[in-house]
Amino acid sequence: MALKVLDNSLALTDKKLIYNERVILSENEKSPLAFLGYGDQNMNMQGSNYSFEDKLTSKLPLVIGSITELEDAYNINLTFENTNHLELKCYLDNEGRLIVEPHILKKGNWNRLWLRIVADSEEKIYGCGEQLTYLNLRKHVFPIWTSNTGVGRNKKKLVTMQADLEENAGGDYYTTSFPQATFISSHKYYCHIDDYSFVTFDFTNEQFHELLFWSVPKRLIFETSTTYKRLLGKMTKLLGRQNVLPSWTDNGIILGLTGGIKRVQQVEKKLKAGGVNIAAILCHDVNEKSQEKYSNLAETIQQWNKEDMKYLGYITPYIAKNSPNYLKLSGKQMFVKNKEGKDYTVLISHQQFVLIDLTNPMAFMWLKDEIKNKLLAIGASGWIADGGENLPADGIVFENKQAFELHNYWPVLWAKCNLQAIEETRKEAEIVYFMKAGSAQSAYYSPVLWQGMQSVDWSQDDGLASAICATLSSGMSGMGISQSDIGGNLSSYGNMRTAELLARWTEFACFSPFMRMQETNRPAVNFQAYDNNIAIEHLAKFSNIFKDLSRYRQEVIKQVTLEGLPAMRPLFIEYEKDEEAYKQRYEYLFGTDLLIAPVYRAGKKEWQVYLPDDNWIHIWSGRKYKTGYHTISAQIGEIPVFYRAYSKFSEQFEKIGNQYSKGWIQ
Amino acid sequence: MALKVLDNSLALTDKKLIYNERVILSENEKSPLAFLGYGDQNMNMQGSNYSFEDKLTSKLPLVIGSITELEDAYNINLTFENTNHLELKCYLDNEGRLIVEPHILKKGNWNRLWLRIVADSEEKIYGCGEQLTYLNLRKHVFPIWTSNTGVGRNKKKLVTMQADLEENAGGDYYTTSFPQATFISSHKYYCHIDDYSFVTFDFTNEQFHELLFWSVPKRLIFETSTTYKRLLGKMTKLLGRQNVLPSWTDNGIILGLTGGIKRVQQVEKKLKAGGVNIAAILCHDVNEKSQEKYSNLAETIQQWNKEDMKYLGYITPYIAKNSPNYLKLSGKQMFVKNKEGKDYTVLISHQQFVLIDLTNPMAFMWLKDEIKNKLLAIGASGWIADGGENLPADGIVFENKQAFELHNYWPVLWAKCNLQAIEETRKEAEIVYFMKAGSAQSAYYSPVLWQGMQSVDWSQDDGLASAICATLSSGMSGMGISQSDIGGNLSSYGNMRTAELLARWTEFACFSPFMRMQETNRPAVNFQAYDNNIAIEHLAKFSNIFKDLSRYRQEVIKQVTLEGLPAMRPLFIEYEKDEEAYKQRYEYLFGTDLLIAPVYRAGKKEWQVYLPDDNWIHIWSGRKYKTGYHTISAQIGEIPVFYRAYSKFSEQFEKIGNQYSKGWIQ
Predict the structure, then answer these.
(1) From the list B59, B80, B165, which residue is nearest A56 (CB)?
(2) Tens digit of pLDDT for each residue in B382-427?
(3) Quick one: which of B212, B215, B218 has its CA closest to B114?
(4) Rounded to whole angstroms, how far apart are CA atoms B545 and B275?
(5) Which residues from chain B sit within 8 angstroms of residue A60, using beta carbons?
(6) How far is C-alpha B16 from the chain's CA centre?
(7) What is the pLDDT of residues B156-179, one digit of tens each?
(8) Where is the Glycosyl hydrolase family 31 C-terminal domain positioned along the sequence (chains A, B) (predicted)?
(9) Quick one: which H or E segment has residue B85?
(10) Where are the alpha helices (H) located in A410-549, listed in sequence order?
(11) The whole model's pTM is what?
(12) ipTM greater than 0.90, yes or no?
């Protein structure tokens, strides 16, 4: 095949599509470039837990038959047994991005497309949204389908088996509320699928990454850069970025409490008396049933605001069946329907809900008004915008679209609804909402990714360690601002939160954009920060450090907004050539100048830390460190934290270190 | 398409292959006749537990392109996109059987073939070897791959989860040591795959049965008949039948005992003193380690024989690594090898074993000699021929064949080895051996199918109920003589045998070709027949009834040998037009004249029984019954048993009923 060069960045030579010196597409005898086929899917849904089955009835390996060079594009014609079946139109857009558009040439019943992207054995892959188990996605398969994250998330653990038996809720290494069809290669390109349909990324092969689409996607977008940071900048320019946060979020911890105003105030006062800085109180149990206990909420919010404390609420895009709202909206096409034309009911925590049909402008507006009336009107400064993972694959929606293809877009629509409610009341600068569900473009519509309900344990599958991984992988997907619930949230099948876990998670959250703490799904039996003075003292210490870090944190958040850099970054983003840096899945840089190595195992007094090549100062001891592995004293209260000696914030870091290093919890 | 008729039995008209008035093959717009493809399989093996994965890289739906009518055959040419890919040569053999031979026409990398056989929604399917969970296989998928039966055999049960975690040993509804690629349709035809390669039968579709072959099979064989009984006769004529049993097996129970001759004799004497008829003692723990305890075994056997009691042993086609035999045979190509050319080691019960290479004539002979020297020479009248499920898919064998394709044939080879050892010593009429692994042709080579290690519980997945299903399904596959271990055998993860379970299982086994009892894998903690007088008395009663049934049983066994009818039969075999009869998965006819409804739940004093249209007499009460559902008194000791009033054995049955109905266990 003759050498073909479209311009300097894109060339097609010897059956290889080369884009900015990276071979993106290629075929060889053993590996066709693409496959076309048909499958009968079976999607099982229980609440927001899904399982997929696919019965393939055809799959054709396609090879390059011919290549047409147009003025501004290459058309790769793919054949099966010498018949054209698929065209890949490859061209550069105005920004120099490579666009690959698949077009079916041979009419037929096709609903499966596999594309192989060239890989090599050394390559590492990051992203695919919020991934809780793996940072480097190589050797694993990732279906992109928003769902519950799961309980235990490891099919070989008893807690997962029990949750699976109950409602298929155990999850697996790939289950996430925020999957995204975007990845970043260590060859410094990203690949984004410009489509919300179901896709599976298979990174198990050494020679290729295989993408399986359950409907032909609009296009694939590739872009390259010389550094990860610039690449993230380009990617987030395409996908959108999160905004700066309201300044009140710097005031301290966001405290999730339940049980009515009286109880909430008791706890809040106890913690404040113990020196804890509280930025906001979040009550997620304000609803029709608890009205009495929250009867003076609006006045209390005013009072709290005077004390520099905000109130945050809770809302979902679904409502309980037979609730007053349900009866009011019934019969007006406001809810997602099932095939029989009845309201689709979804069982969540043993209660039946119906889903507001976000594709119906009337329903969308009604939900926006709910946000305005129930939250903004009473003075809420934010809320958890929960849910969004529930659109059933076989649901019928108002807009003439397949629910199956909208499923992953649903959380984005839900985010949009929240943002519009705020924009229409001109409160963008004051409000924060936390969304656990999301996908591409969520960054633009939702200020914070909430990592959902981790288990109250240390585990790499679903506990404290998984929250670190989730932070870094979502950062590599363009969600630079995220937070996990301090101490975890799900206490299932005998799993219980300990004081130590709560303390270690507190320390981790201190070096993040947010400190938010919930009481778990079983507050009475899990350890709480207000349970004893040692815990209060510990929380007070870190809420103080958090407050003292405000100026630095604002700098970091600005990098998210202006440059698309995640607030919390894997070490290799800043130290690209350091091979050891790539191995640190549970260490991160908060901004450029703070290196954090959270202790994610119980009973540790020391912790091994890897430092990349720089001049580091251990914040608590003031000791200087060079690159390499070091064993660091890491008592509770002394999370391993290092700052760059030449940071412009070094004086402030030193001050924090001096002030909080001794005399606290030992 | 023009009407084509090859002879009266086979016609091809309107894209339908019609054989003796049954549409066997057909295509329509929604359902192609066949598919051709390629897949990369991944077979995981732990001991004799397997899991499969298949990555398809191609799958072409094939439709009828043309039909060639030869003198003695139809050639159906199947095309994809108008290119011939596969030919199905369809013809009748000398016996009038329909043979379908697939031949690849289009060269390529094909290792997957799917064939669809016409079905309708009312149709029922039986067979596929020993199936423990389902009798009617409709709505389920059955991979044919010999393996352990599994522990619990239900992925939603804790015991299965625990076994899976430990060594992938939990099993599933389809796992069996004796799978067979043969099924019988309620349209009164059988379909047999004349090949031992991996095949999966998918009976989930209403319109077709889909067979998936992992290599192109030699041929499919179909045959029809007017009744199930004649059909079974034809099928077993093709596949081989089991022989009559040695007369000593009528003498009573076969008692499995361990721990050395001294202990064995103690137990045996205790039971005999309690009135238990013992036909044979089976010791499966006679080996190099226990030599001392069995030092006078040969003399003891002689003594036992004088007392009309036989001795049975135990042997496997694998030997412990580093055992004296291993060291002796090492380096002589006697063992199955791995890809590196080393001896393939298989972990069984935490010990490493190597597999005798049954394809090497020298190794085959050595194993035959072991049987002669270690068992026959010391006077054994039989043995458990355990194992045979272990040939690894990636093993390398002496003969130039793929281990993957030999895996299902391995147990047949192992059976052959046993039979030859006996034939060469001219002891065919005296010897019985029990094999749990097997497949097509096992009937010819092994006298008894042993159902392996059921769990010591009642369950339909893996307990007493599963043994009933196993009996009936293997009977429908041509294995007319089978036995389960009375009381089950596997006591895992806290599962323990009760006195009641042992009693109910004893009653079931009494109306079967064999009564064999083992002490379970944990004798000390499970209930044993010799644990108290009530149990001994109960066992004595049923060992007496068993003995008293000898003449009738010999008749029944003759039907196996001469007519291919299973000794224990689903009701519908004898009462074809009775729709209710098809629903009774756990009732059976022992021969034609005894109807048994084993009690397979705990705590029952009554039992609902269905009786087909005949004149029935309840053996214990002498009451007469007509067709229909009846609630019958079913105390322990009074298993629901009915005899046909007009049986030529009715007098004998009446006598048994009178003799044993009262005054025993109440």
Answers:
(1) B59
(2) 999 999 999 999 999 999 999 999 999 999 999 999 999 999 999 9
(3) B212
(4) 12
(5) 58, 60
(6) 34
(7) 888 998 899 888 999 999 999 999
(8) 564-645
(9) strand B83-92
(10) 410-424, 442-445, 464-475, 499-510, 533-548
(11) 0.88
(12) no
